[in-house]
Amino acid sequence: MSATAQKKAPMPMDIRARKGGEPLVSLTAYTTPMAQMMDAHCDFVLVGDSVGMVLHGQPSTLGVTMEMMILHGQAVARGLNSAMMVVDMPFGSYEESKEQAFRNGARLMAKTGAGAVKLEGGVEMAETIAFLVKRGVPVMAHVGLTPQSINTLGGYKVQGRDADAERVVADAKAVADAGAFAVVLEKVPEGLSDRITAEVEIPTIGIGASAGCDGQILVLDDMLGLFTAFKAKFVKRFAELGITAEEAIAQYAADVKTRKFPGPEHVFADVLPKKDA
User: Fold this and answer.
1) Looking at the domain assignment, is residue 161 inside a domain?
2) For residue range 28-74, what is the model confidence (pLDDT) as tens digits?
3) Where are the alpha helices (DSSP H) in 4-54?
């Protein structure tokens, strides 16, 4: 084998086997350049339905369609060699029945080459998860705050405080028992996240949860400071590229208006220079 050969992308069973080991690293991606940047650093890359808000300016994830997820999944796949790709199932594509979920999950995998799909919900989705897994569609689950349910949850609130804790625990156990290979815990209190991580046999992936989870995920645009509409408490800005980009755009505009750009080095001569005799 060549010394420069690409590392083989993990499969869902490999992610599952990382339970209790080195923390799993994940980010969201929506485009080929994004995927290329994170490929060497992530165990899996999520094509999140957050694309609706981050790239398409939608007020929530509810307007995201299957066509959008397929398009962005295909783009991300072109940029990955060593990370596994997981694609979100959008709102309305799996809740009606387990048969609907299989049709759409299988379509996402076939059209994008994804290694797995992710869907939201706990106890109420356990039967659907089991149905998909038995038919060859690996599932990453998502409990706690489920953004596709914000209208029934009453907004983007922390889930699992006080009397609500047992519901979140039951959700996590139900999806694990149904065959999900990992579960995302979103906006779940730290202590409860640690309890769930200890009590379920599949890796927990935290986002606004606990450092004790088996892995972490963030939206790339959030952690790079590119998405600036709002900043969730659980987001750490590892860069402020949005500010840098705005400053660069302002400088470009100023240089155009003062005719500093383009300069001599950016334009082409009318006549090629003569060669020496």
Assistant:
1) yes
2) 999 999 999 999 999 999 999 999 999 999 999 999 999 999 999 99
3) 12-16, 32-38, 51-54
Q: Is 157 left (phi over 0), alpha (psi -120 to 50) or beta?
A: beta
- Which residues have CB under 8 Å from 166's CB, separation 6+? none
Helix (H, G, I), strand (E, B) or coil at 45: strand
Number of domains in the chain: 1
- Which residue's entry shows tokens 């929506």? 30
At 203, is the secondary structure helix, strand, or coil?
coil
> Catalytic pick from 96, 186, 240, 265?
186
Backbone dihedral angles phi then psi of residue 43, each to the nearest 5 degrees: -75, -40
Distance of CA 76 to the CA centre of its chain: 11
Cα–Cα–Cα angle for 151, 156, 160, rounded to 5 degrees: 105
Among residues 143, 135, 83, 90, the alpha carbon closest in space to that of 114 is found at 83
Tens-place pLDDT, residues 253-273: 999 999 999 999 999 988 876
CB distance 160 to 168 below 8 Å: yes
Whether 168 maps to a domain, the answer reads yes
Our answer to whether residue 99 is catalytic in this structure is no
Phi, psi torsion values for 207, nearest 5 degrees: -145, 100
- β-pairing, 215-218 vs 24-28, is parallel
Burial of 57 (0-12, 13-18, 19+ CB in 10 A): exposed
Which residues contact residue 273 at a Cβ distance below 8 angstroms, ignoring those fewer than 6 apart? Answer: none
Task: Quote the Cα angle for 180-17-49, to 5°.
Answer: 45
Give the C-alpha distances (Å, rounded to integers) separating 65 from 10, 49, 91, 186. 27, 9, 8, 22
Its pTM stands at 0.92
Residue 256 domain flag: no
Domain carrying residue 91: 12-240
